[in-house]
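Our preliminary data section would be incomplete without showing what the modeling component actually yields. Below, a chain of 614 amino acids is followed by its predicted structure, encoded as tokens that our downstream tools consume directly.
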Amino acid sequence: MTGRDPRWARFTRAAVDAKEPDPATGRFGRLRGTIGHRARDLRRRLSEAHAAQADSKPRHRPDIRLLPAVAGVWLVAAVAVGWPPALVAGGAMLLGGSLLLALAVRWRLRGARDQGRAGQVGGRRASRHRGPLLGATLLLAGVCILAVLAAIALRQFATGASDLAAAQGEDMALTLEVATQPHPIASGNLAPRVVFDAVVLRATTKGRELTGPIRIRVIGAMAWGKLQPGDSAGTSGRIVPVAAADNVKGLLRPGTEPMDVLRVRDGPQAVAGTIRSSWVTEVQRVWAPVSADVAGLLPGMVMGDRGGMDASLDESMKVVGLTHLTAVSGANCTLVLASLMLILRTLRAPRPAAAAAAIAGLAGFVIVVGPDASVLRAAVMGGIGAVAIAGGRPRRTGSLLAVSILVLLLVDPWLAGDFAFVLSVLATLGLHLVGRRCVEWLSVLLPLWLAQAVAIPLAAQLFCAPVIVLLQARLTPYTVPANMLAAPVVALVTTVGTLGMVLAALVPPLAALCAAASGAGAWWVATVAHFMSVLPAASLPWPAGIQGAALMALFDAAVLCGLVAVVSRERFALAITGVVVHIPARWRQRFGFGACVAAAAAATVWWTAAVVRL
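Predicted structure:
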């Protein structure tokens, strides 16, 4: 086709070679050549930067071998807790048979060799190494899923065999044993209430005596809040069935105050109750005449007891996102474990002995404050970390988090739907995945110490925000600044307060000094909460439900992209260029800016309609 206009030849060369064309090639050729030239230049500069970084600091590939097991166990646990016991048992047997069959086939084929491909051994070395690793990863995931199904089936059959399970909905006289520490709940205009889990030991209905035990949730008057875990009491009422996916088998609203109370006299629960009550007494004696906010907040920050908190302070902390400080979580357990390890290693204790003593101290702390979901997660992860330190191996946060999730879900599969457990895992995952990157990005704009202070709450908030929206549908813009201001005193309150809690029953004067020192930190947290909760736009409306969580996830992704665009312009420009190059030129010219405006308008309309519930 030599008769064609030579301009088409120049057009083709400009488009294929991505060179800067002359003006005669037209607008499309110039755009294509410019984009290609910029993309090549950015790739070259980033390659040089990556090579220099690789020479200065080696990068470690993330270990994702436990990811299939964690994902499978969590998904199966979240779904299977709502299945009938027969279906769970059948699924466990089917999966067990499939695993045995797969192992038999694998063992059978292991000895087979393909003689005709002997010359390709060297070229297939990598695939031969990946094959067994992939098989072992899938086998581990299958075994863990089988274990969680077996745990669910055993617990369902054990509960279903109780006479009490069949008598739900009838009026009964019951004997309960308190299983968890009672916590106050919001009751609106009604009388204050507390909620806790209990075990029904015995019950009588219509002249029949029923035997337990079954675990139920109790919502009762404030008189029930005086009981401690391990105490038993009598009452009357009707146990209402709950959803099968709940970790309890019924809900009880007692018709009376606790009767025939039998206090636990010995054992770990008795000691824990004495420690808690002695610490609250010392805190009240020191701070009640000075600040009611500190007197109610300090026990919450040290051991999760929010019973004495004022309603206005509780609401202020919700508005600015500081309520996690009053629920014992990973930060508390990490500080306790780190403090014990530091003290013991300073005293030149051997590494294994220091790790064992630190784990024992952490176990005592968990018993005293109560085994909440987030506390158990942090305690298990801290124990695994201590074992890794004792063995002289570097600590890998991702692997330890995966192991802790597997252990906790195998022990209690109902944690898969517990919001406290989900938020605790997401916060740790956010710190692991983007915490260090946020520090690197922010250090371009801020001093290093300030970048570290902002990065920790920012990374945790970005991962937790979509789930928090499901609990309270509002946007709290001051969450990151409030957590940044409160962070410097959290270690003081936790470490000194925990020491005072231990000394409260032994040496009250020293416990009073610890209460005074740690109370200063609690005063600062209360001041930050009250001040920032009354600032303009402290609490903005946000869509509720799944669409609210989806919008929050998109908003968090936009925040991360904006941060990358500001502090890492070359990388962001390369990513945008790589996307634009694959878009047809006519679409870029006609719909580029308009499409961005239309997408922004659609997101705005979606958000507005969801907020006003059109």
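The CA atoms of residues 80 and 88 lie 7 Å apart. The first strand starts at residue 171 and ends at 178. Preliminary results of this kind motivate Aim 1 of the renewal.
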